[in-house]
Amino acid sequence: MFHVKLHGSDAMARGADEKLVSRRIKLPKRIVEKPLRQVSRRLLMALFVMALTVLIVWIDRDGYHDNANNKVDFLDCVYYATVTLSTTGYGDIVPYSDSARLVNVLLITPLRVLFLIILVGTTLEVLTERTREEWRLSRWRKNLRDHTVVVGFGTKGRSALQTLLATGLSREQIVIVDPSAKVIDIANAEGFTGVVGDATRSEVLLRAEIQKARQIVIATQRDDTAVLVTLTARQLNRGAKIVAAVREEENAPLLKQSGADAVITSASAAGRLLGLSVLSPSAGTVMEDLIQQGSGLDLIERPVNRAEVGKSVRDTDDLVVSVLRGHRLLPYDDPHASPLQLTDRVITIVRAAPTAVPPVVLGPVD
User: Fold this and answer.
1) What H or E segment, with its residue span, contains residue 93?
2) How far apart are CA 163 and CA 353, in angstroms?
3) How many Å apart are CA 166 and CA 188, to the nearest integer?
4) Greatest Cα pair distance in the chain
5) Which of 154, 172, 217, 325 has the greatest count of CB atoms below 10 A from its CB?
6) C-alpha–C-alpha distance, residues 175 and 192, integer Å
7) Predicted structure pTM score
8) In a 3-state reduction of DSSP, which class is residue 29?
9) pLDDT tens track of the chain, all 366 residues?
10) Exposure on the CB side of residue 45, measured as CA atoms within 13 A
11) Cis omega (within 30 of 0) on the bond before 253?
12) Beta bridge partners of residue 328, listed in sequence order
């Protein structure tokens, strides 16, 4: 019977402001002005239109008639401009000269239309913003399938994303799940869709459309959290490939029993790389190069092409290190690895193709 060994504090329990009530989906933000700035700018435009109207009426005030005292002063000009632009029009102050009426036709009326456009446009934008966001979310849900869900946007999750992006996976096909709203905001700024919430809860993973995902990367900090997320994810999606990271090697079998297809022991892997670098710094450099996708040498898995069928692993153009035949992984020197079969897949070392992948800026460390 396995038990989970705890280590450190969990990124899944950050801050009182990141409670489960804040669970939501955040699509990548479009570059738009802040709402307060938009409203302030339009308010200034409306005030400018009103001031211009007051000035026009004041210049030609002798052409206006006030039913109250037959005299139009500055306050009357402001009053007339206000009721005219708002289309109230009480009729107590009216233009009676030909010049005043012509100015109303050519200038005041267009200013009234502009004033209404500013006010109505601002109101409609505020009212339709929520509808527009819901429409984007609905379209995102409809089009999303065979995507990648990354649980945890710390150091491990970001490093996994860098590798995925280097292999050609688009940012639109990646969904980040993290309990921190601030972390999800960072993910949005980098072009990723994010879901705020505790990934051990099925409703949070369903918001990430995990039931339609092709692969799931679990990069939480605590091993017990990784186990719970793996169990929940496997229950929701039986066919997805799940790769999980654990800190303690003794917890790896539990992750596999929970449904993970592959388990990476982060502490042990780092320790082995350190030991290899001590024994041979050059060998450590080569290993680090191999696991850093997109530069120098890359370790990739690919299908056997027809030209390679029947050949020995040593006769291929690439440097083959292992052959995947069914569920068996055969090293290159295994007698059963050769000849290659059409249904085989080979793990090879190739020269990395140059790619222009925008860097993922490192943020909070796990």
Assistant:
1) strand 93-95
2) 13
3) 19
4) 112
5) 217
6) 6
7) 0.58
8) coil
9) 445 544 444 444 444 344 443 347 777 765 445 556 767 777 888 889 889 989 998 988 888 888 878 788 888 888 888 888 877 777 788 888 888 888 888 888 888 888 877 777 666 666 666 677 778 888 888 888 999 999 999 888 888 888 888 778 888 899 999 988 888 988 888 889 999 999 999 999 999 999 999 999 999 988 899 999 999 999 999 999 999 988 888 888 898 999 999 888 876 676 677 777 777 888 778 777 776 766 677 778 889 888 888 888 888 888 888 889 888 888 888 888 889 888 889 888 888 765 544 444 444 444
10) 17
11) no
12) 325
The number of beta carbons lying within 10 Å of the beta carbon of residue 222 is: 22
Q: First vs last Cα of the chain: how many Å apart?
A: 28
Find where tokens 């590798």 sit. 163
CA 59 – CA 76 distance, rounded (Å): 13
How far CA 336 is from CA of 217, 308, 324, 328, in Å, comes to: 32, 16, 11, 11
Q: Is the peptide bond before 179 cis (omega within 30 degrees of 0)?
A: no
Amino acid letter for position 258: S
Can you tell me the distance from the alpha carbon of 244 to that of 266, in angstroms, rounded to the nearest whole number?
10
Q: Which helix (H) or strand (E) holds 323?
A: strand 319-325
Radius of gyration of the chain measured on its C-alpha atoms? 33
Residue whose C-alpha is closest to residue 222's, from 9, 364, 3: 9
Q: DSSP alpha helices (H): ranges in the chain?
A: 35-59, 74-85, 98-103, 109-143, 155-166, 181-189, 202-207, 223-236, 252-258, 266-279, 281-291
Spatial separation of the C-alpha atoms in residues 305 and 318, rounded to whole Å:
12
Whether residue 162 contacts residue 361, with contact meaning beta carbons closer than 8 Å, is answered with no
* Pair of tokens at residue 187: 């993910």
Beta bridge partners of 347: 301, 322
In DSSP terms, which residues pair with 298 in a beta bridge? 350
Q: Which residue has the tokens 């029009």?
A: 89
